[in-house]
Amino acid sequence: MDTSNWILQFLGRLHPLLVHFPIGLLVVALLLEFLTIGGKRKGLREGINWMVYIGAGFAIFSALFGWFLKTQDDYSGNLVDNHQYTGIATAILGLVTAIILKNSIKKAKLNLKAYRFMLFTTVILLTIAGHLGANLTHGEDYLTAILPGNKEVYSNKESGALLSELKGASELSELQKDKLSLEVRGLFAHKCYQCHSENKQKGELILEHKEGVFKGGKSGLAVVAGKPEESEIYKRIILPADNKKVMPTKGKLLTADEIALVKLWITEGAHWSDQAVKVFPEAPLKLVKPELPKVTEQTHPIDKIVSTYFDKNNVAWQSLVEDRKFIKRAYLDIVGLLPSPEAITTFVNDSNPKKRELLIDELLNDSENYTQHWLSFWNDLLRNDYSGTGFITKGRFQITKWLYNSLKNNKSYDQMVSQLMNPDKSSEGFIRGIKWRGVVNSSQSTEMQAAQNIGQSLMGVNVKCASCHNSFVSNLTLDQAYGFASIFADEPLELNRCDKPIGKIAKVNFLYPELGSVAGKTLKERLLKLSEVMINKENGRLYRTITNRVWERLIGRGIIEPVDEMDNTPWNAELLDWIAADFIDSGTDLKHLIKRIMTSKAYQMPTVNYKKQEDLKKDYVFKGPVLRRLSAEQFSDAISQVVAPVYQAVAFNPNEEKMPAQRIWHHEKDLTNTVLPLPGKRYFRKVFQLSKKTIKNASVLISVDDAYSLFINGKKVGEGNDWTKVGKYDVTHLLHKGDNIIAVEGNNIGKIDNPASILFAMKVVFTDGKSFKLYSNETWKSTDRTPNKNWINLNFDTKKWKKVKNYGNSNWAKLLDFTFKEHEKTFARASLVKQHSFLKALGRPNREIVVSKREEQATLLQALELTNGAYFNGVLEKGAEKWLEKYGTDSGVIVDTLYQKLLGRHPSSDEQKILIASLGNQPNAEQLQDVIWSVLISPEFQFIN
Amino acid sequence: MEKQNSRREFLKKMTAASIAASTTTISMSSFLSSCSPEVQKRAATADTVILLWMAGGMAHTETFDPKAYVPYEKGVESKRILSTFTKIPTIVDGLEFSEGLEGIGSVMDKGAIIRSYKSADLGHILHTRHQYHWHTCYEPPQSVQAPHIGAWIAKELGPVNPVIPPFISIGQRFTMGEAEELKAFHSAGFLGTEYGPFLIPDPSSGLDSVRPPKGMSLKRFESRYKLYQELVNKSEIMEKGSNYQRQSLMRSMEQSYRLLNSPEAKVFDLSQEPKEVYDTYNTGRFGLGCLLAKRLAMNGGRFISVSTEYEPFLGWDTHENGHIRAKNMKALIDRPVSQLIKDLDETGHLDKTLIILASEFSRDAIMEGRPGELVKNQVDQPDIIEDEKYYGMHRHFTDGSSIIMWGGGVEKGLVYGKTADERPCSSIEKPVVIDQVHQSVYHALGIDTQTHYEIEGRPFYTTPDGKGKPILDLFGKSTKIS
């Protein structure tokens, strides 16, 4: 800042001082002017004149300095603008008034009418400007807040509760004294700090800290320990509302409970706790397993607690859902797939009373499918994805492999957290965040991202606010956020407030220092300590947070909502604490947690209907599970299971073998730049030699985007036009010893340029058991000029052909089927697929930031995707053809099978009638496709009931 | 409350255009609480916005703010190169453009040019990061997902014509380099996908997005929907009573059906245009994008962006052969852009349509970044040019570029701000930053400067901290913020 600026700024800050002169002078001038009406009190004239002149002069200076203040101190907003306009207008009118006055004096003939009118108008305007200015300084509700009917939002229910707890006690324990002290100070924070803080020491009283409170203010000692009647605070808060000495003067008076609490605190010796006062409600860290209520009619611990809760809230137990519904829920919730009709029948007919629990066990033991379902939940929560912002510049790392194996092996949650905090290469992606090239806001440094993400994902606390300034929504301070972020920094971090350094170096600290120290000289040391502190069993917050998230997934609404704000009040604290403690007792076994919830009646009750979304938010009372929409992945996988594979290529292949084949393109050039291929045909060749050994068998795999024709030694082998469908050919009879030639014509279909590529592999097995393999790679040659038809043969001149180019394989998904092994045709689980427009439309998020809850409501763009999306309709089209092949053309059979597979039941006679009428006697693929679509879109299929 | 039956009857009779109310009422924003304001609605001067996006960094000195022309000759020094084209006059006295922009020059009496836009200083230049910043007004990364300006507008104003999605993005594909970074800002962010872009990568097949699936006759499309409805009505689930989730699903399906079945889908059909009009616009995909934008603007589009398409090293991203590439790009944009302005003007739509032409930053022959904040050079540029491929603007320059605005209440023939005539050709008068550009757009649309939502407990404004101010001069001095 240069010197002229600070002068202006200094002058600007004189504005609040200066404005009182015109206010005082002009108002008094007007009053006196009234007294002169009718020619009375002529002696006042001279004085009034001077008041008007000086007042107008100061008004001009006030406006000028106000303008300095605005420009130098960065004031903005409508209120400021309005204040500015009225202020300037006041100054101008004041000046005009003064001039009229002066002129009329000169002419020795007082033009009183005009002058008086002007003065009156000026003062009116002045009042408005002054009021707006006051609003700026004191807040917009400054004046109106004290009007009857304007209640303050803050209401402290705790006061009453604490009061009744303490009143009963004959002598307060240390703990109770601390509690009392903190409660009273919380009260001060909400009710008194506005005037009695370091910033604004009204009556020279500061209530922010111990010294201030006991020092008192201008009116005397604020607090006399043991003697409320002598304590100024108490004396003032009990005054009636119309007494001008009553406190607080701003906002609502204290309630009877609050007053009683302050009195009790002083009577009990005004004990001062050294703990920091919590202005916002904060959940206790510690987790103690509550004792279960003695309810005999329920056996499941969750149900015992819920039963007591139900009694209290007059909610009745509903009979549990029937077997068909239960098995569907259980499948979708544990493995994310639909149960087969056979599985349903077996389950329904099973007479074992423990069959539900057995089913849950069986599904949880299906580790591969369990992992492929829950992977999406964890990917969202840990901000892990296969593609996305940051990967291109190597500023981001996946943790997929680590995550997949952790889930598959049911690693304990403690161990997972510990490995995320103190990671090796495989799990470091989480705390390393996303690094962008260039300069980023200090609240978005990778260290701060780590702090924010750990806070949100694992601890259910918002660190984002505090990473810029002291939080407005929690007790977290900038110091704490930076202290936390410093754990991950290579060098000490300097605090930045709103992206401006404030010259303070952060002290390494955990968000909840009472859990233990995370200080350490090296990063490694600190991370190790953090990993221990996080899973300290005193850190109940970690376990409550994950417990609440899993409950929310399975039941549809958390015990605490929103699930990222764990300081909010649970609808039943006992329930949350018991399940979380039970989770710890199980060795933080995630499958145990899932099973614990799913075996309860609470989970197995029918869903509750809510007419409005708001009913789930305010004054929520648990009555049973909430209807849940199928996730993008569940929906996609269900179609893959029943209709036709939606995806055949994955971004992450858990059973991956390294694929030596590379995707190759024709190397396109425009001038001297490498550009993307234009539409049209490209020709690829590869000559290779086979030794003299006799060939036992030879096979080829090929996938081309968009279309191909494959030739070997001049003979056409096959063609295809879907890169996800791998062409597999037996070419034993086409090969011979010596030189062989593979030729591929690739075709970019469409009107616009688009990358096109070839992926090829060949395996030749000789009679002696040895083998020869050939893959597409940069030894191939290509051209974009149409060659003569001899190009598929060995004897062809390729001098003008170019070396192909591999633009990288990272953008390409891995074909599930690109292997020589014969295995059952399968589909790619949507959780393993690279983000795709279809999944995105159905709510799979871009995982640049933590997503703990997906968008819930249906949207128009989503509906459009389901109604005319080319991709979705393409899958259904294929599926319908497949179904006709497989199930014949008997409409009755088709309808019944479809209902069993998708909805887990037979169609009703009405439904059967409608569908058979629609299909006719000899259904074609189009008719069937539309029937499948109608069922897939129906609410019964779309929701987990 | 009407009964189910009569409601269906009612819907049957409903014309596409009258679905207005229902389309705008789907609100998914379960976690958003609107804090927008003490709204003091100003009279809007525009209903529709078209953003003509010059993706990849368009050099101001080669286009709308030409400097001294230095022709190519072997051995010319790089530091002498200020412009590689001659200047041409425009219809506005004293306003000169670079050769090749005669068409756009001829419509400058209908718009205003800002010549002093300064991009943010984000350190190392990354196109997608600057584009993110331009389109969202927030510097990436952010701890919550920032919405695109089009999403804000869609959220605040909804569609003009209920069957035309309020935010349409034309011309950008997401399958190429830095696709993920592009997706990151082509998003409604925390406002919810409801307000996200309706993507039309290829304008000539735009119609496919708004009609029944390919190969499905209208008759079949209608009977498919009827079948679905019949099934829903017979389903025992519906007897369980009303549920907001089910209702929301069914309502969205109904709207989608109405939209796709609507006669207005032909707005997306470029083949409806006379051949000579089509040919005038057709300089490539961008030109056809302008044609589609025109049709949309005339029929109730709200926010439409047309991109020359960002693809690393292509389009305006000239890392070599800058002169020739710039010439080609000018040929791509000049005719369709000027025709778009003329057509909208002739039909009277220009008054209510705000058209903006902009780029994420500019380019220079030797300077990477900006004076005082130079960053690592990404392109080699010899001091002495011996090969013509080094003749042009190959480095990224962030200290000055041009933005043109037409219509929607924008002052006609105005030249705002100025860059230096000598290197560095920085903004030297009335520098403009992105917050001002966004607020100017919102100003034209009547969206309050303080519009914001509470997200994760914090207020999130259209422009950071709600501090941005519109450039009132663009709208004539008489206009004031209320």
Describe, in plain words, how this protein is organized in 3D:
The complex is a heterodimer of chains A (945) and B (482). Chain A is an alpha+beta fold and 945 residues long. Chain A contains 34 helices and 18 strands. Chain A has a six-stranded antiparallel β-sheet, with no helix packed on it. A four-stranded antiparallel β-sheet of chain A has the order 11-8-13-14, with no helix packed on it. In chain B, α4 runs parallel beside α6 and α10 runs parallel beside α11. Chain B is of the alpha/beta class and 482 residues long. Chain B has twelve helices and 19 strands. Chain B is globular, with a radius of gyration of 24 Å. At the A-B interface, β6, α29, α32, α33 and α34 of A face α6, α7 and α8 of B.
Determine the mean pLDDT of chain B.
88
Q: Determine Rg of chain B (CA atoms, Å).
A: 24 Å
The largest contact between protein chains, plus residue counts on each side, is: A-B, 91 and 102 residues
**What is the CA-atom radius of gyration of chain A, in angstroms?**
38 Å
Query: Low-confidence parts of chain B, pLDDT < 50 over ≥5 residues?
Result: 1-40, 478-482
